[in-house]
Amino acid sequence: MTKNDYLKLNYKPNYQNEIVATFYGESRLSLKELAIKTAEESSIGTWTKINTLSSDILKRLAARIFYVNVKTGIFKIAYPLALFEPASIPQLLSSIAGNIFSMKAVKNLRLEDIEFPEKYINKYPGPKWGISGIRKITGIYNRPLIGCIIKPKLGLTSSQNAELAAQIFKNGVDVIKDDENLTDLSFNRFTDRVKKVLLLKKQVEKQTGKKKIYVFNVTAPTEIMLKRSAFVKKIGGQCVMIDVITAGWAGVQSLRNADLGLIIHGHRAGHSTFTRNKKHGISMLVLANLARLAGVDQFHTGTVVGKMEGEEEEVIKINELLKEDWREFNKLRENWGKLRPVLPIASGGLHPGLTDKLMKILGHDLIINFGGGIHGHPRGSLAGARAAKQAIEATIKKIPLKIYARDHLELKEALEHWGFK
Ligand code: 3PG
């Protein structure tokens, strides 16, 4: 093995047949040496010369470093497609996001971006419904969907949960979800919750003439998750949520591949264990790419203005990537093959006073989720739901929240309570 087996700075990557990964790196070695170690460990090599690595294997399968910038710490590697099993996110990550992070040579290493050839992308199913499907189901085309997370996260019985959901649906919310840690608990059994929520949801839909979506959290070991999802389907539900990081990509893919016809809501709880450090780990952008490949229909991407970390430029870039429609973008070098666009979800620390700022930054193709921002309203959850709806109405009508609040009491109370920060 020589340096030149991996380092090919004059090489022009073939975006039709190679996966291109962009890394940021820091090391006691030079950046080039770190890039070589990264390329060999993530493709076919190891720490020493091995007799089993023929020149033929090297020629066909070695990763190629074609860009190194010592000023920015960025290097780019092209991987031949033959290194990857089609439609397997676990195998993809075991290769290009596996051992490399543990190497002693690494001080910091971050997988910033991955670009996939269209033929690799098209082996994945992508979202079943995507943005247009979700908008069709709800009949809402010209505004963000108003979402609510049942709070407290844990503690309500299945009956209290269902009752609260029905009241919030009645007061203007379109989508209600279980929280990330509410699954099947002794005080709120999954099957009871599904039956009770869907019964009351049906009644609300009849009364209001509006389609509502309840998002049941099915996160669990895969076989249990599939059973829970099938149950939701059987009782008449349309949507399930999976915590993509804690359940794992194999679980997400298994759920999508079961093709139950349900909307899949992707929660990203735990992602900051590896996305938050800007020098080490995997970027949130990569995670969003993986969610779309795996077939999540709607995905938590950040709020900019809420309680969760996530800078404006980064969240905008992620949302734009998820919303890219192959019909419009198929002339670009990288496109999303036949995969449908994903609906971004803004969630975490949102309240009515933040909606105009949020929509100015992230636009209308969005689910805006309020947890504390509905249940923490001074006059309770129902007033909170109305305030959230009024805030979005005002923003759509381009009326400043303060002005709209003059004749919308619940919004007025919310603004007095939380202000605009
Ligand atoms: C989520 O699921 O995104 C969080 O539980 C958000 O809750 P919050 O709106 O109360 O911050």
Helix-strand blueprint:
Blueprint: E1 18-27, H1 31-42, H2 55-61, E2 64-69, E3 74-80, H3 89-96, E4 106-115, H4 118-121, H5 130-138, E5 145-149, H6 158-170, E6 175-177, H7 190-208, E7 213-217, H8 222-235, E8 239-243, H9 244-247, H10 249-257, E9 263-267, H11 272-275, E10 281-282, H12 284-294, E11 298-300, H13 312-323, H14 326-329, E12 343-347, H15 355-362, E13 367-370, H16 372-375, H17 381-396, H18 401-404, H19 409-418
Parallel strand pairs: 4-10, 5-6, 5-13, 6-7, 7-8, 8-9, 9-11, 11-12, 12-13
Antiparallel strand pairs: 1-3, 1-4, 2-3
Helix pairs in contact: 6-7, 6-17, 7-8, 8-10, 12-13, 17-19
The structure holds 3-phosphoglyceric acid (3PG).
Question: Could you give a short description of this structure?
Answer:
This protein has 421 residues and is an alpha/beta fold. Helices cover 41% and strands 17% of the residues.
Please explain how this structure is put together.
Strands 5-6-7-8-9-11-12-13 form an 8-stranded parallel β-barrel, surrounded by 7 helices. The protein has a 5-stranded mixed sheet with strand order 2-3-1-4-10. It is an alpha/beta fold. It is elongated and about 75 Å long. The chain has 2 domains: 3-121, 2-Layer Sandwich (Alpha-Beta Plaits); 130-418, Ribulose bisphosphate carboxylase, large subunit, C-terminal domain (TIM Barrel). Helices cover 41% and strands 17% of the residues. The longest helix has 19 residues, at 190-208. It has helices at residues 31-42, 55-61, 89-96, 118-121, 130-138, 158-170, 190-208, 222-235, 244-247, 249-257, 272-275, 284-294, 312-323, 326-329, 355-362, 372-375, 381-396, 401-404, 409-418; strands at residues 18-27, 64-69, 74-80, 106-115, 145-149, 175-177, 213-217, 239-243, 263-267, 281-282, 298-300, 343-347, 367-370. The structure holds 3-phosphoglyceric acid.
